[in-house]
Design brief:
There is one protein chain. The protein has 204 residues and is α/β, with parallel strands linked by helices. It has one domain: TIM Barrel. It contains five helices and ten strands; from the N terminus they run E-H-E-E-H-E-H-E-E-E-H-E-E-E-H. The strands form two sheets. Strands 1-2-3-4-5-6-7-8 form an eight-stranded parallel β-barrel. It starts with a strand and ends with a helix. Bound molecules: ligand LGQLAAA5. The ligand O=C(O)c1ccccc1N[C@@H]1O[C@H](COP(=O)(O)O)[C@@H](O)[C@H]1O binds next to strand 2 and strand 8.
Length: 204
C-alpha cells in the first residue's frame, strides 16, 4: 500500500518527511487553507511524486502551476466537472469525492475515462482537511476498478482499523493511504516520529 503525506508547507519539515520516503507528497494550492503553500517546491527525490491540491481552480492557472512547480499529479478537491478533467494536461489526475455514511457511486461514472485515481475523503465543513474518518464499509460496494486513495482523518489511532480494512475485499482497489491533519504539530508541520511510527505499525 502506497502512502501520501499531504499539506506540506515548510522546507525543513518537507525534507524530513521526504527522508521517510512516502510515495507522494502533497502541497495545498488553496489560499483559504491553513496549509496553503505559496512557495516553490524544492528538489525532491524522483521516486516521490509531487501532488498539487486544488479546489475549483481556474483551468489556465492550474496548467501554469503544474508547469512552474513541476507537479506529477493534481488532486481536484472541489466540484471540478468531467469536462474540466478532460481538458487538463501534463499531470495525472486524482478526483476527490467526499463521503459520510453513504455514497452514490453512480457519480463516478462520468469520471471513469477522464481521471487516473479517485480519492475518498470525509464530507465536512471544509473542502478538505476536516480530520474525521468516514464509514469505510461504504467501500464494500465500490463498483470500479480504478485505483483509489483512502483519506480523511487517518492517524495513528486508525492503524488497527486500517489493517482490517487492508485485509478486507473492500480494499481491492485501494492504491494508497493519504494522511494530513492527524499527523500535525501545527497546520503544515508534520510530526516525523508519528509518521515513522505509522509506517512501522502498518507493516508489523
Ligand atoms: O488540508 C487542507 O487544508 C485542505 C484544504 C482544501 C482541500 C484539501 C485539503 N486537504 C486534503 O484533505 C484530505 C483529508 O485530510 P485530513 O486527513 O482529514 O486532514 C487530504 O487529502 C488532504 O490533502
Amino acid at each position: 500500500m502506497k502512502l501520501k503525506v499531504c499539506g506540506m508547507k515548510y522546507l525543513n519539515n518537507m525534507e524530513a518527511v521526504a527522508k521517510l520516503r512516502p510515495d507522494f507528497l502533497g502541497f495545498i494550492f488553496y489560499d483559504k487553507s491553513s496549509r496553503y503553500f505559496n512557495g516553490d517546491i524544492p528538489y525532491l527525490p524522483e521516486a516521490i511524486k509531487k501532488v498539487g491540491v486544488f479546489v475549483n481552480e481556474d483551468l489556465e492557472t492550474l496548467q501554469s502551476i503544474i508547469k512552474e512547480q513541476k507537479l506529477d499529479v493534481v488532486q481536484l478537491h472541489g466540484q471540478e466537472s468531467p469536462e474540466y478533467c478532460s481538458q487538463l494536461e501534463n499531470a495525472e489526475i486524482i478526483k476527490v469525492f467526499s463521503i459520510k455514511d453513504t455514497f452514490n457511486f453512480s457519480v463516478l461514472l462520468p469520471y471513469e475515462e477522464v481521471c487516473d485515481y479517485y480519492l475518498f475523503d470525509t464530507k465536512g465543513k471544509l473542502p478538505g482537511g476536516n480530520g474525521y474518518t468516514f464509514n469505510w464499509d461504504v467501500l464494500k460496494d465500490y463498483p470500479s476498478t480504478k485505483p483509489f486513495f483512502l483519506s480523511g482523518g487517518i492517524g495513528l489511532k486508525e492503524v488497527e482499523k486500517l489493517k482490517d480494512f487492508i485485509d478486507s475485499p473492500a480494499s481491492k482497489y485501494c492504491y494508497s493511504l493519504d494522511v494530513n491533519s492527524k499527523f500535525e504539530i501545527n497546520p503544515g508541520v508534520k510530526n516525523i516520529n508519528e509518521l515513522e511510527k505509522f509506517k512501522y505499525e502498518l507493516q508489523h
